[in-house]
Amino acid sequence: MSSVDFLAQEKIWFDKPRYDEAERRFYERINGSSEPTKDVGANSILQDIARARENIQKSLAGSSSSVADQGELVSRIKSLELENQSLHKVVDDLRAALSKLECRVAVLEKSPAAVTPTPTPSVPYTNGTTVQQKSSVPVKEEEEEEDDDDDDIDLFGSDEDEEADKLKEQRLKEYAEKKAKKPGLIAKSSILLDVKPWDDETDMAKLEECVRSVQADGLLWGTSKLVPVGYGIKKLQIACVVEDDKVGTDMLEEEITKFEDYVQSVDVAAFNKI
């Protein structure tokens, strides 16, 4: 930084002596005489002093803002330099990766050209003509499979094949009979019923006796209990296990609601597969 720039940024009031002299004259004139012409001159001097002070304040404010702007510019330049360095590093990495890819592509392009096809030997036929034998492995495998299929086909038939077919049919028949004799899986369900009486005067023991009197193939009654409903009324909650193919919930509800003197309604509280 040069001396001129340093002095430009330094907060120095070079014109202070002149303004001090003007201020001294102003006060001397006020104290010496009170003529209107002198007052006019004094007012002009005061205005000049006020303007000078405003200019000084503006210059000081401008110098401080310029310093702040320079500091901000320096920080921004440093951040840009760091970003530039990071971008250079990324570009270098990309160039290295691209060069590796180019090398690999070149190697892959050269590898098929280096492989030379092997000559296929010719196979003579009985009529004197020759054809080239295919060297591909899948074609050989297909030819061998076709030959095996041709060998398996018996155009004239045999007694051994008939006996094998009869034995196979007999075994299948025996297997079907054994499977039919085995008992199948029986689907069962666990049902929890809520049987509600008419009022609190209903005999719940008699009601339970009536419910358990319902009997059917595939129906097994379980535990029961009385559950309070309200106003002194209790409902019968009873469990049972049924076979799905033989007994359903509709049949149970229909049979239990036949006891109209004791039963008001029947609801399924829970239904689970076993």
Walk me through the topology.
Blueprint: H1 3-9, H2 16-32, H3 36-114, E1 122-124, E2 130-132, H4 137-152, H5 159-181, E3 188-197, H6 204-212, E4 219-230, E5 233-243, H7 249-256, E6 263-273
Helix pairs in contact: 2-3
What class would the helix/strand composition place it in? Answer: alpha+beta
How large is the share of residues in beta strands?
15-25%
Mean pLDDT: 77
- General form: elongated
User: How far from one another are the termini?
Assistant: 96 Å
Computed over alpha carbons, the radius of gyration is: 58 Å
Helical run tally: 7
List the helices and strands in order. Answer: HHHEEHHEHEEHE
Q: What does the largest sheet look like?
A: 4 strands, antiparallel
What share of the residues lie within helices? 55-70%
Poorly predicted tracts of residues: 33-38, 121-140
| DSSP, total strands | 6
Lateral arrangement of strands in the main beta sheet: 4-5-3-6
